[in-house]
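pipeline/complex-builder :: batch 7 item 3
reading input block
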Amino acid sequence: MHPAPSIIIFTVFSGLGFGLMAYLGFDTDPLRGWNVLPYYLIAFSLSIGGLLSSLFHLGNPQRAWRALSQWRTSWLSREGVLAIVTLALNFLFGLSLFFSLDYSKNLGFVSGIFAIITVFSTAMIYAQMKTVPRWNNSGVPILFILCSLAGGAIIMGDFKLGLIGVILSTLIQLLVWVRGDKALKNSSTNISTSTGLKNLGKLRLLESPHTGENYLMKEMVFVIARKHVFKLRILSLCFLGVIPVIFLILSLSVGFLIGLAMISYFFGLLISRWLFFAEAEHVVSFYYGRG
Amino acid sequence: MTSLPRQTDKKLGLAIDLDTCVGCHACVISCKEWNTSNYGVPLSDVEPYGANPVGSFLNRVHTFEAKLEERPAQIIHFPKSCLHCEDAPCVTVCPTGASYKRTEDGIVLVNEDWCIGCGLCAWACPYGAREMDEVAGVMKKCTLCVDRIYNENIPEEDREPACVRSCPAGARHFGDFADPTSSVSKLTKERGGIDLMPEQGTKPVNKYLPPRLKNDIAQENFDVLRPLLEEHDKNISGFLSWVDKTLEKF
């Protein structure tokens, strides 16, 4: 699949924003007043920034409001509705903390839960795709949620939860790669089922429908840089797991190093998300002699 | 609404005969011609005369080669357009309700005034039947020529999809698959028509009629002209007969 920058930014940024909101909502001893303000500013900038970035992916963004209507069947629509509800809940909860009102733990809890469900629905936009076997995997929503929670904990400077989150999300990332590598083969779709010609023997594409490219090939038969996959996975593991763990442990003695852990984790996420799209094989590739 | 209808009154679709298709691409061109000037925005081309022309098409013809061991290779031309699935995954993923399946005839359509051009439906389709129009930013797909089949302003023989009307080989058949007595239903039954990617669970309405196995000339000593020539040799008479007899004397 084509790794569109707008979609990578959307999933990474909004995921981190909602992960931070989840942390703030579940915090049993939350910050108050001016102390809590910067964290909510970061959380809202990340989540709203990410959501706005997704609009750049649209052919007609001026009609984006229509996307809130089909929540009964569409994960994309659910994501939109849930994101708005989550932003509203967290705005209320954030305000109550900022003004040090008699804050409601229940409201915080609900805000956190909604933040996680929103990330889950973001992941489901991709994980629901039967046509992309690599994505059609229960590990994908778990990975998205863990990454956002780990990111939220590191931004909050929480050593313990940050460390657990980084390690868990890196392990799940590895698992998703291992399972994903077998997914296309294990899915029963192949060139025989896509053409129904298996009785005629070994099949290959003799002629493409046209000499140039088309939308389908650019969007779904993306193969550029697949040869660098291994190197990129190693890079991603370093930035996502190894370096943040080192800086997190060092931050016990030198506090500000947790910031470097965050920056590294963020780059790791970007590489991992780029790979998430670039590596994904769509079954339509069988009609184009790939896959 | 992007919920799928539980059942449609008719199941309009195509039966595509892979035994007959000669791969001329006439259906591709007539589809582009009809659909660029009728339902919805035109099917745009980008850089049509440049180095890398791209454009949206609703119907494309792929060509495959099949080879059994010890048999000659066989070429199959493979036209592909929207299969108007009963369980169309492209419809349910649509966040705006622009994609829908009609209850009356089962045709899957896009309301282009509502489409935001997110492209998710094209991702959800296993067949590559939907293409984003790069100029208008909306999703284009086969309408089964909904503006021809019910159109009382055109002659009756033209009231079928442009691809079917233009096929010089008669490889494309249009009809109602819900009616077991329709020509397409009978044809599908007789010829063992198949679904593409049945494992994807989309329940496509369009059916593909599989090609026969190609004759093996080398093994079967098969000569298509031999019987005709033998008949011809026997019946020869008149001037040619005299020439034949005279020449044999030398």
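note: The mean pLDDT of chain B is 92.
queue -> next item
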